[in-house]
């Protein structure tokens, strides 16, 4: 088999997984051409990724919730409410961020577990249980901000989470050194992990892709990482939001693909009855997934509050729907058992690209909504079509 | 005398790969109660579906003559219009609506464009009187017992001027009192000229009520018995039901080594809180090492429920009695506890609750024993491929690769994946629920051979099966269940098809 036919068959087999990446590249190229390169400028890409951060972390959690055939509508206002609580902790109670952040994340987990209790223990449909949560936390947000209105945060450390960048150490040809180093480290780590996986497979005597294709794959992915690093290093480097986003993706990707817990989550999503009969504790998994969703909602709230440097009375409005849209664009299936966290992040970035690109083009907000809706529908149609092909 | 209301002539119905009915002829005279009898899978339900239009005209061969006219039913409504009413085992009522709304659901009495509720109530009351049901028409269905719900179903059929009433195992869920009432009502309807076809497994009922009885076996009409000629007796019916030749497809197991008791149930009962009745009643049962214990019985006799109640009780039945595994009293809180104790349960419905159809073979094989492919919660994906490859080879699973999605495999291969998943847990006691349902003869033989090998390794197998041949060909000892209770224990030497059928139809 020559390289070309092998590449073709790999793409064909994995079209569902690669489809999103292809869509993302097409969207980015289109906007780059339409804006004469303005879209792909360092500054725009940096802003775009930062603005996707608080939705991306929600989309990661939402993907797992949808994988186990549930939904969580409460996350938006949970994020808004916990952001406001964080602001109150720091401005009125004088807590440092080292206390505030862990406590807020813990609150998120507790709220998520309460949702899990309603859904797993009492058997209330997730849609209704979390709709109630949405109303409750909307009220709670208004309640805690009632006297003060918008709470301005003057804590520089906290505000850096949403607006700051990692230190640059020094500038090399106008590029930030530390960011470059991070990019290089990422490439080395990627190549190392791919090679060790391949070696491991070969010691078991399994089929691996031919060395030619393997090299091309390594080169392509490394180039993409290098390019993104180069673009970002040309502006302010990696922002803290991007670092947090990446950490969340790496941890969740590992959890879902390489651990028993992850496997159990997908088993529950694929067939809850069979999972139960296979000795998997379906209730426990439901608690864990909603607990993680709550924690990520808290994280999202922190990111958003920090980005605005204040807690507002309407923070969190419609976050849940943006996160659900991102998860679906990222390839999650409402029938359960299918969906990757990497997909969810790509989905969030796709949606952010659309907003950013259309803003640069001066597209009216009314058309923006329609186009984003169209993209969501197209993503789900693509998903359904490719699945029918496979089944 | 040849005054037939229904003649079904030479009906043949094929599904891909299976002939469900071949050349079946079935005739019902006006004003008679005609029972349709046969084992599970004999073709009774298929025949009734052909009659009622569930399988539309053209998908089967043969004629249906109803009231002297050849009929072509394209959908259920056509047969209803002709005067055929069918009442399924699972009642098709709306539990949150009233009795009168249910009786006229889909057949509303109208005044102009609007429903005439007053007339509806009047008519409903009349129908209730006809079926001798003493409740107000405003009662909600969910507040009625199953027996009374059944009467509402009959009232509903009567409201459509039914001439031929079909009942599919109407007394299966009823207690004795309700059953008797129902049978009395059928006799009463008969006197009013309504003919009736009743599918039943309870031979006593058949004997007490039937004018005629037709026995089906393997999709063929075996005989039609006439009560007036004294042909409807237990022995004649059973002889005709089981007359099937047992093919010798069961591999021999020459050296039996039966050891100590590994599983013991004492006065074991399970109460289903949702159904509100006992699904397993005072069961005493014993399984020894190196033994295949067959559990025979008809569908709905409580065999699967018994298996689930042992296997960690996933349906949350209320349990009573004692379960001992390897001499230790057990009280499993979850299926995972049962797996830890060395029990595995291969479900009857592999697509529904056995396999993860959208996942591939290796993921399915490792699903019940992820400890075997992981360390401290971290998966070793290569180990998983190795395990999958081993089982694919040893069980002869035919698939293009381990990454093949299980939903696309044939029934036999799916069953092997299911078996592989449970063997990977390293069980000592294996419960197989209908292990060869819907799979071809070749795969059946393979599964029997695997079972024998497992027994040789010292496992114990509990095999639940509706297929008499399989039960008799594979088991060392047989328990026969009916209505949630064990009706008898048989040593294989003293077992005949007739003795099993007698116990199962009690």
TrEMBL record, chain A:
Keyword Protein transport: no
UniProt xrefs under CDD domains: TM_PBP1_transp_AraH_like
Source species, domain of life: Bacteria
Transmembrane segments annotated in the record for this chain: 20-40, 52-71, 77-110, 117-137, 174-192, 213-232, 238-255, 285-304, 341-361
Pfam families referenced in this protein's UniProt entry, alphabetically: BPD_transp_2 (PF02653)
Subcellular locations according to the entry: Cell membrane
Annotated keywords: Cell inner membrane, Cell membrane, Membrane, Sugar transport, Transmembrane, Transmembrane helix, Transport
Topology versus the membrane: Multi-pass membrane protein
Task of the protein: Part of the binding-protein-dependent transport system for D-xylose. Probably responsible for the translocation of the substrate across the membrane.
Record-given protein name: Xylose transport system permease protein XylH
Organism: Planomicrobium stackebrandtii
From TrEMBL, chain B:
Transmembrane segments: none
Domain ABC transporter: 6-243, 263-503
Gene3D superfamilies noted in UniProt: P-loop containing nucleotide triphosphate hydrolases
UniProt keyword annotations, A-Z: ATP-binding, Cell membrane, Membrane, Nucleotide-binding, Repeat, Sugar transport, Translocase, Transport
Domain of life: Bacteria
CDD domains listed in its UniProt record: ABC_Carb_Monos_I, ABC_Carb_Monos_II
Molecular functions (GO terms): ATP binding
Entry-linked PROSITE patterns: ABC_TRANSPORTER_1, ABC_TRANSPORTER_2
SMART domains according to UniProt: AAA (SM00382)
Pfam families named in the record: ABC_tran (PF00005)
Keyword set includes NAD: no
Name the UniProt record assigns to this protein: Multiple sugar transport system ATP-binding protein
Species for this entry: Planomicrobium stackebrandtii
């Amino acid at each position: 088999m020559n390289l070309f036919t092998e590449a073709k068959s790999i793409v064909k087999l994995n079209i569902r997984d690669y489809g999103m990446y292809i869509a993302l590249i097409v969207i980015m190229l289109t906007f780059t051409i339409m804006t004469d390169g303005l879209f792909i400028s360092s500054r725009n890409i940096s802003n775009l990724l930062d603005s996707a951060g608080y939705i991306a972390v929600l989309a990661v959690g939402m993907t797992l919730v949808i994988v186990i055939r549930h939904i969580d509508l409460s996350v938006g206002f949970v994020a808004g409410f916990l952001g406001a609580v964080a602001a109150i902790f720091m401005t009125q109670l004088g807590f440092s961020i080292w206390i505030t952040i862990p406590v807020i994340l813990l609150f998120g987990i507790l709220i998520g577990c309460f949702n899990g209790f309603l859904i797993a223990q009492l058997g209330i449909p997730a849609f209704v249980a979390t709709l109630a949560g949405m109303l409750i936390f909307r009220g709670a947000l208004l309640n805690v901000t009632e006297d003060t209105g918008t709470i301005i945060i003057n804590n520089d450390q906290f505000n850096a989470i949403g607006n700051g960048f990692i230190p640059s150490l020094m500038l090399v040809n106008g590029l930030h050194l530390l960011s470059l180093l991070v990019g290089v480290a990422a490439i080395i780590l990627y190549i190392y992990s791919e090679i060790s996986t391949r070696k491991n497979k070969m010691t078991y005597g399994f089929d691996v892709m031919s060395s030619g294709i393997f090299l091309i794959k390594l080169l392509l992915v490394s180039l993409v990482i290098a390019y993104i690093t180069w673009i970002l290093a040309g502006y302010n480097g990696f922002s803290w939001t991007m670092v947090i986003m990446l950490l969340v993706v790496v941890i969740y990707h590992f959890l879902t693909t390489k651990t028993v817990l992850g496997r159990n989550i997908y088993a529950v999503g694929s067939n809850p009855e069979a999972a139960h009969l296979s000795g998997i504790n379906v209730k426990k998994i439901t608690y864990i997934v909603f607990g993680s969703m709550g924690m990520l909602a808290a994280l999202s709230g922190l990111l958003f509050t920090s980005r605005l440097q204040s807690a507002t009375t309407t923070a969190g409005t419609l976050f849940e729907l943006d996160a659900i849209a991102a998860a679906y664009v990222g390839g999650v299936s409402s029938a359960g058992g299918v969906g990757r966290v990497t997909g969810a992040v790509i989905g969030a970035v796709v949606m952010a690209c659309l907003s950013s690109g259309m803003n640069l083009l001066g597209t009216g907000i009314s058309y923006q909504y329609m186009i984003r809706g169209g993209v969501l529908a197209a993503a789900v149609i693509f998903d359904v079509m490719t699945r029918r092909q496979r089944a | 005398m040849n005054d037939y209301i229904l003649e079904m002539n030479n009906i043949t119905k094929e599904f891909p790969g299976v002939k469900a009915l071949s050349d079946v002829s079935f005739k019902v005279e006006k004003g008679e109660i005609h029972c349709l009898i046969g084992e599970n899978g004999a073709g009774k339900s298929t025949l009734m579906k052909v009659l009622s239009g569930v399988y539309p005209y053209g998908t089967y061969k043969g004629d249906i003559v109803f009231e002297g006219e050849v009929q072509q039913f394209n959908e259920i409504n056509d047969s209803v219009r002709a005067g055929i009413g069918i009442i399924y085992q699972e009642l098709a009522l709306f539990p949150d609506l009233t009795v009168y709304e249910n009786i006229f659901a889909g057949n509303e009495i109208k005044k102009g464009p609007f429903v005439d509720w007053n007339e509806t109530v009047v008519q409903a009351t009349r129908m209730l009187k006809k079926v001798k049901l003493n409740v107000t028409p405003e009662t909600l269905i969910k507040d009625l017992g199953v027996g009374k719900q059944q009467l509402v179903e009959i009232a509903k059929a009567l409201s459509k001027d039914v001439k031929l009433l079909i009942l599919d195992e109407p007394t299966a869920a009823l207690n004795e009192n309700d059953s008797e009432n129902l049978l009395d009502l059928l006799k009463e309807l008969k006197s009013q000229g309504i003919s009736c076809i009743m599918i039943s497994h309870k031979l006593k009922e058949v004997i007490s009520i039937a004018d005629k009885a037709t026995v089906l076996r393997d999709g063929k009409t075996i005989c039609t018995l006439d009560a007036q000629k004294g042909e409807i007796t237990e022995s004649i019916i059973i002889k005709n039901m089981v007359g099937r030749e047992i093919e010798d497809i069961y591999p021999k197991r020459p050296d039996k080594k039966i050891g100590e008791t590994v599983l013991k149930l004492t006065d074991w009962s399970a109460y289903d809180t949702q159904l509100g009745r006992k699904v397993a009643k005072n069961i005493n049962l014993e399984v020894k090492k190196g033994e295949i214990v067959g559990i025979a019985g008809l569908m709905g006799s409580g065999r699967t429920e018994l298996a689930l109640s042992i296997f960690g009780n996933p349906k949350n039945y209320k349990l009573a009695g004692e379960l001992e595994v390897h001499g230790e009293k057990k009280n499993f809180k979850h299926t995972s506890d049962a797996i830890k104790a060395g029990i595995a349960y291969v479900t009857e419905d592999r697509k529904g609750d056995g396999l993860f159809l959208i996942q591939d073979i290796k993921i399915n094989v490792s699903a019940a024993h992820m400890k075997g492919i992981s360390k401290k919660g971290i998966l070793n994906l290569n180990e998983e491929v190795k395990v999958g490859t081993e089982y694919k080879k040893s069980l002869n699973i035919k698939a293009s690769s381990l990454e093949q999605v299980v939903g696309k495999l044939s029934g036999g291969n799916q069953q092997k994946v299911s078996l592989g998943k449970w063997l990977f847990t390293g069980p000592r006691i294996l419960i197989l629920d209908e292990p060869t349902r819907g799979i071809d003869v070749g795969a059946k033989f393979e599964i029997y051979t695997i079972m024998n090998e497992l027994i040789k390794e010292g496992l114990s197998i509990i095999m639940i099966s509706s297929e008499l041949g399989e039960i008799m060909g594979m088991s060392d000892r047989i328990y026969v269940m009916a209505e949630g209770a064990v009706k008898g224990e048989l040593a294989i030497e003293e077992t005949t098809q007739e003795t099993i059928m007698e116990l199962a139809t009690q």
